[in-house]
Amino acid sequence: GAVVSQHPSRVICKSGTSVKIECRSLDFQATTMFWYRQFPKQSLMLMATSNEGSKATYEQGVEKDKFLINHASLTLSTLTVTSAHPEDSSFYICSARAGTVKETQYFGPGTRLLVL
Amino acid sequence: QKEVEQNSGPLSVPEGAIASLNCTYSDRGSQSFFWYRQYSGKSPELIMFIYSNGDKEDGRFTAQLNKASQYVSLLIRDSQPSDSATYLCAVNEAAGQNFVFGPGTRLSVLP
Questions:
Q1: Of the candidates A43, A51, A105, which has its C-beta nearest B99's C-beta?
Q2: pLDDT tens digit string along A76-100?
Q3: What is the separation of C-alpha A76 from the centre of its chain, rounded to a whole number of angstroms?
Q4: Interchain contact, A43 vs B32, CB within 8 Å
Q5: Which listed residue, of A8, A55, A69, B64, carries a Cα 20 to 30 Å from B110's Cα?
Q6: What whole-number distance in Å separates Cα of residue A77 and Cα of residue A30?
Q7: Tell me, what's the pLDDT at A101?
Q8: Are residues A108 and B43, on separate chains, in Cβ contact within 8 Å?
Q9: What is the C-alpha radius of gyration for chain B, rounded to an integer number of angstroms?
């Protein structure tokens, strides 16, 4: 199956700093990448959808200036959490899709963020 | 608002039994349906996808789709303790780009 990687897998940072998370599709070209957040014992929450070369589409309630998404190539998308606060501590998961909406999303292993 | 619903569980079954996980969706135009498994603290992994009405089998897993009833299910035969996880149903939006995920059903297989 398709492989999606994320880096880092875990990050601890101080409040007010920015954190960048990378999501890569290793063996396919991802026309669309998705960023999710998951709090403990809760379901996945879609944050934004990004298509290569265009601006990300953010879900309602997600601040685009706080969660910066860049999808510069067909194999890489980045999420930057700017001015992180303790309430941003969560499990961030990306997924990637090769083609049309009918096709499968493959998930990365996730990044656990802890903001002190 | 398009919705995907699942029983949150936990669903407990004894080892060796058949586990039946159900999912209903509201968007009649949905065309593709996916089941993911998520272990605690890990990201979801794809188990199966199904596009057509009827059954699709893959090893111990069978996905069943009934578009008229807007219902999709996952059967796990010969359940093992290692199957204990949260199972997420995902449905594509007919006119959008994204999946809509259900809240997940927590399955516990008791040895």
A1: A105
A2: 999 999 999 999 999 999 999 887 6
A3: 11
A4: no
A5: B64
A6: 9
A7: 60
A8: yes
A9: 13
